[in-house]
Amino acid sequence: MEFDNTSSRLAELNHAQALRNIPIVVYLGLVGITGCIGNSLVFYIYASIYTKLNSRIFLLFLAAIDWSTCVIDIPLEIITVLNEYNFQDTLLCKFSRTGNALTTLYAGGVLLAIAVDRYLKICRPLGFQISNRTAKLLCIVLFFVTFLLIWPEFVMNGLKTVVIKGEGLNGTECSIEDAYQKSAYPTVFKFLIFILFTATLSIMIFMYCLIGRKVRFFVLKNERRGSQSKSNGSLDSTENLYDVSNIKRLQRTENSNAAAMNEYVHVSKSNSKDNVYTTYDSNDSIDDFKSMDSQASEIGAIERKRPFKIQLSTTQLDQIKRKRTLARNTTYLMFIVTSSFIIAGLPYFILIILNHATDHFVLNMNPGGRVVYGFFLRSYFLGATVNPIIYSIFDRRFRHTCRGLARNLKLRICRTEQLDV
């Protein structure tokens, strides 16, 4: 009889807490629905329309991660929120916590790969570049490495006994199970994951700082030599040097990135009237010419003491400028995506630090405080739905493609209605 009363009271307390957690459920539901639709749209557009964009591989994997978060992780999280005092399914808890850790860390790894890809294209245009095939292989390897890192989550998570404040009753929640509460393994594991994640974020920030510095350098150089460029219709010699040196790479790489800072151009061999001449000083970046033997037949012999001229048409110059503008926009877009990921996860990390630094941090909270705590503890889910919104705001091509798909859908609906009539 006493057991029945305890179970009944525990069910009442769990139901009351579930009602208080309705704002969290609504938040998770909106994030899940919006993210599922948005990431499905992103996956369709980048998989079937932007087939020649090199960064699309990373964006596709990122959309797949966010989609799985919205479809799998968020529904499981809603179940845990609605059973905060009376969670009973150990296996469901293990899958929920492991899935959250897997998608979050994997998303961080893909964003790190994007930062490296942007760095290579902007700051090291003459060196190694990540091709589509390499990008696929890298994302697959990252997935298995992430899985190997987070497998202890599946082992250590389960049912944890919690004391309900003011009731003298013990409930169960989805967390580190009782068998590992007094063990040092959970603390060591979470500390290592925290260090790894912090290092990843630090590397990404450092990469984008280098990229920003490089972009600023080219902008200032273009402004400083703008009058000279306008007078002779040519580009800066160093920038043209990078363009010419990448001719063969464009021919070798079938899916070259159209958004690189120093895109590839073809040297005009004709003597048409729209050709313009660009003069190079042979003392300028002479070491960069050492690897250009394969281009000697096209651009002529390189002399250390005499300047030489390369013929570039005005159409090619305009194409270079457009692609460089696209490169800066693409890099800026990736930077915003990375920043949103960091901002979305920041409240979670702050609460985790406070929880470990303060004794009984959650236990001393009142029911309303637990709701606020639970809301911000799940802020990182927001990162799974903001990327499609960022693309629609900052990527003009993505926005126009969405409008075109909406118009086509509207026309199909109208035609279907006319046929029904």
UniProtKB/TrEMBL annotation:
Subcellular localization: Membrane
GO CC, alphabetical: membrane
Primary localisation category: membrane
Domain G-protein coupled receptors family 1 profile, first and last residues per copy: 38-391
Cross-referenced InterPro entries: GPCR_Rhodpsn, GPCR_Rhodpsn_7TM
Pfam families: 7tm_1
Membrane topology: Multi-pass membrane protein
Keyword annotations from UniProtKB, A to Z: G-protein coupled receptor, Membrane, Receptor, Transducer, Transmembrane, Transmembrane helix
GO molecular function: G protein-coupled receptor activity
Membrane-spanning ranges: 24-46, 58-79, 99-116, 137-154, 191-211, 332-355, 375-394
Family note: Belongs to the G-protein coupled receptor 1 family.
Protein name: G-protein coupled receptors family 1 profile domain-containing protein
The organism's taxonomic lineage, starting at the top: Eukaryota, Metazoa, Spiralia, Lophotrochozoa, Mollusca
